[in-house]
């Protein structure tokens, strides 16, 4: 598998002061299947909510009928972890300067779609399953975003109410 | 990108009663880079903890030095979301019969590594960052598992303490 050079060169040069790009490996190590699409009201990046908690819009997840049986018992879950592919994001930036923070930060300290593997994650509330279509709340991606995975959310291992992101908590201090 | 036929045919036939396999697409849709390795005490599948909360072992995440700068500010996080690649899992089963439940369930209702895209997810407690090595607790994978991504855990959007997985909650009733 060879990376698509076009995909890798879009926006190659760092766009904002302080941003740092690296050379990515010449080959991919593994391959992904798109298993469905996420349908949302947002067709332009600037219209998307800044984070998944910001919007109450009901969105739908359309799973490829090939995987219909994999949805058995999903309807018993109140919350799901959704993994999806940010196919328009550049992958080579290791330090980014998000507009609303104004200071460089490592990509692994951010939830930005820009990262070596642009897999995004949202914890959604499940409202309804009809056939291979799921209605959910709390997702923030562009309409037609490729779906990668659906997982049950287990509070026993996934919920950490006391977790802190220090740089974010302190960003308006001192 | 063409799937490796060998990888796709291992254990092709359903091994347990009630399991269902599907034909996977002929082509991958996107490619992943392995960005590091997860070092754990477990070298055989049967030694791994059943879930990430079950073990207090300190494990290390070794990030490829290429991405060193992407770790800036990660040390300010108490918890991280780790995505990794379950490279030994078959991808074609849509209904599985986990040994300890004894009944078929859809892959998307399970946290099993067996799924069309075998991306696993653990919420870990971060103990220490030294260079490109992270010490963490609460991960359950085999030694040398390929790393895909590191994300800060934001309690505001990621923590759902009241979430329920109905089939799991009810499995010992009636």
Plain-language structure description:
Chain A has 174 residues and is mainly beta. Chain A has a single domain, classed as Elongation Factor Tu (Ef-tu), domain 3 (Beta Barrel), CATH 2.40.30. Chain A contains 3 helices and 10 strands; from the N terminus they run αββββββββββαα. Chain A has helices spanning 5-9, 155-158, 166-169; strands spanning 20-21, 30-32, 36-39, 58-63, 79-85, 93-96, 105-106, 119-130, 133-137, 145-152. In chain A, the strands form 2 sheets. In chain A, strands 3-4-9-8-5-10 form a 6-stranded antiparallel barrel. The first copy, chain A, has a 3-stranded antiparallel sheet with strand order 1-6-7, with no helix packed on it. In chain A, a hairpin with a 2-residue loop joins strand 8 (119-130) and strand 9 (133-137). The longest helix of chain A has 5 residues, at 5-9. Chain A is globular. The termini of chain A are far apart. In chain A, 41% of the residues are buried. The model of chain A is unreliable at 5-13 (pLDDT under 50). Chains A and B meet through strand 2, strand 5, strand 7, strand 8 and strand 10 of A and strand 2, strand 5, strand 7, strand 8 and strand 10 of B.
Which features characterize this protein?
174 residues; three-stranded antiparallel β-sheet; homodimer; Elongation Factor Tu (Ef-tu), domain 3; mainly beta
């Amino acid at each position: 598998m060879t990376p698509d050079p076009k995909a890798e060169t879009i926006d190659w040069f760092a766009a904002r002061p302080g941003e740092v790009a690296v050379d990515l490996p010449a080959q991919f190590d593994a391959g992904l299947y798109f298993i469905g699409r996420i349908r949302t009201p947002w067709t332009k990046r600037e219209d998307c909510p800044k984070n998944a908690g910001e919007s109450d819009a009901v969105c739908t997840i359309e799973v490829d009928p090939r995987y219909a049986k994999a949805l058995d018992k999903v309807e018993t879950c109140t919350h799901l972890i959704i993994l999806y592919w940010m196919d328009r994001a550049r992958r080579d930036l290791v330090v980014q300067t998000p507009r609303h923070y104004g200071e460089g930060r490592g990509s692994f300290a951010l939830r930005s779609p820009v990262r070596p593997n642009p897999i995004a994650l949202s914890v959604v509330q499940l409202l309804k399953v009809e056939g291979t279509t799921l209605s959910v709340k709390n997702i923030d991606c562009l309409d037609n975003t490729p779906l990668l995975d659906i997982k049950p959310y287990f509070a026993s291992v996934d919920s950490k109410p006391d977790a802190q992101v220090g740089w974010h908590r302190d960003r308006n201090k001192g």
